Amino acid sequence: MEPHFALSIGQILRAPVARNPDQLIADGNGRAVTYRQFHNRVDRLARALRDLGLAQGATVAVMDWDSPRYLECFFAIPMIGATLHTVNIRLSPEQILFTINHAEDDAILVHEDFLPLLLPLLPRVVRPVTLILLSDSEGVDLPEGFAGEYEVLLAQAGGPVSYPDLPETTRATLFYTTGTTGDPKGVSYTHRQLVLHTLAVTADLGTVPGSGGLKRDDVYMPITPLFHVHGWGFPYVATFLGLKQVYPGRYDPARLLALVTEHGVTFSHCVPTILAMVLGAPQAATTDLTRWKVLIGGSALPEGLARQARSHGIDVHAAYGMSETCPFVTHADMVASQSSDDLSIRTATGKPAPLVEVRVVDPDMTDVPHDGRTTGEVIARAPWLTEGYLKNDAACADLWRGGWLHTGDVGHMAPDGTLRITDRLKDVIKSGGEWVSSLVLENLASTAPGVTEVAAVGVPDDRWGERPVLVAVIEGDGAVETAIRARIMAAIERGELPKWAAPDRICPVAALPRTSVGKIDKKRIRQLLEAGEIA
């Protein structure tokens, strides 16, 4: 027997198949497979990929809605030693093209709904790629150049499949995150990191007393896209526990509520925007949500949204993490919230998960007092945090300065160890859980005749978390604002910006506030906007 038992994603799958083989994994269209059948389909997918020449060392991209089929890719692709590249279909077309080329994808599994997005990009994909169509219909026509349709390939893939014995440091997954400037950055995770993350989240949420947390009798439905940090890692957790799982496909509020009722869904996670959309649907008033536990991440959980969720009986809590942390770092105190419905408990960034270390430090990396007031940068360590960015040594070094991962978030720590995020070091805007670059908006606006200075900031929004606003020193009339919007819309049409980057407002001012060293003071700009002193 080898002295070291290597951790691998395949181990996550084998446990529920042996323990709970008849439990169901369902989609939003009334179809379901048992865990036994699911395991067989994973094996067939692995065999089909190998038959196409995709094996250890390959990179396989997926562009799909949330589905059991996507979950099959979560397992089969890493288990053959390949890397699963979850493509963020909400990026602009140019950003998607960059990620495909930068990741050096060898194959792309694409849902038919995304063909209009992918096909125009293919002539500029620099490597030859194997194309596989994903369809929810039978007998669909195969586009030119495609190797096959997913279900047909699985049906044709017969015979046993053996999986390689992989070093646990083998790269398993890859996805791209966007920030304030520059191209998207590739974030990857190994088999070891994903297994440890799965075990830690299971131990953390599984030991919450009573009905809280995440237990073996829960019914799981993600409403965070699976391309977002592996659906925050919960599909692996839910599979490991052998839970009934429901994958809804496209997110439609009425459909999500119907699935909660139909399947008895008890655990989900999402960004605030999605929860607000669900609660705003007319069907929410007549749907029993009193057994639904929802974790909110991606951006802060507003107290107003938490109050609205509680009025429906939802057991809602904030959680915190980022693409570079796999993502679980902290969550609100689920024990304290059982004895008190103080919304400040539920909306707090919370306390670290097992094996996570969190500090709040000054610029010299000295811990600030844990007094619930003194702020500093939040830094973290855990066995599953990404080691860095793909092909970007400079960004890796900056991320891990001093041996700790620098989140770029500002917060304070209470005496009892509760973290609360208060701001971000960088002035990036996050709308609906997606990043919008303030620098790109500023650069576009600055090219309009009559604009002498401009700043792009995010302002709080009940629906989207934040929305971009431009504040500009303008010489001229309303034609300047028209010119600014024309430039931004042209960039969106060229695929250089996502459509939600268009600012809600353009506010003319006589001068932009500045800091003591002469920099534009964006914090002050946000304060003036929120106070109505800039309109």
What does this structure look like?
The protein is globular and about 75 Å long. The strands form six sheets. A seven-stranded mixed sheet has the order 7-6-5-3-4-8-9, with helices on both faces. The mean pLDDT is 92. Helix content is 32%, strand content 24%. A hairpin with a 5-residue loop joins strand 19 (405-413) and strand 20.
CATH class of the domain at 1-189: Alpha Beta
- State the end-to-end distance: 70 Å
Structural class: alpha/beta
Looking at how many chains there are and whether they match, the oligomeric state comes to single chain
Helix content: 25-40%
Q: In order across it, which strands form the biggest sheet?
A: 7-6-5-3-4-8-9
Q: Give the number of helices.
A: 18
So, the CATH homologous superfamily of the domain at 1-189?
ANL, N-terminal domain
Radius of gyration over all CA atoms, rounded: 23 Å
SSE topology:
Layout (H helix, E strand, L loop, with lengths): L8 H11 L4 E4 L4 E3 H17 L7 E5 L4 H12 L3 E4 L6 H11 L3 E5 L3 H4 L11 E5 L13 E2 H7 L14 E7 L7 E6 H16 L12 E2 L8 H4 L1 H8 L2 E4 L5 H11 L3 E4 L1 H9 L12 E4 L6 H9 L3 E7 L6 E4 L4 H4 L3 H5 L3 E2 L4 E5 L14 E6 L11 H7 L5 E9 L5 E6 L4 E3 L2 E3 L1 H9 L4 E11 L3 E10 L3 H16 L11 E5 L12 H10 L4
Parallel strand pairs: 1-11, 3-4, 3-5, 4-8, 5-6, 6-7, 10-11, 12-13, 13-14, 24-25
Antiparallel strand pairs: 1-2, 8-9, 14-15, 15-16, 17-18, 18-19, 19-20, 21-22, 23-24
Properties at a glance:
single chain; 535 residues; alpha/beta; Rossmann fold; GMP Synthetase, Chain A, domain 3; seven-stranded mixed β-sheet; five-stranded mixed β-sheet; 25 strands; 24% strand; globular
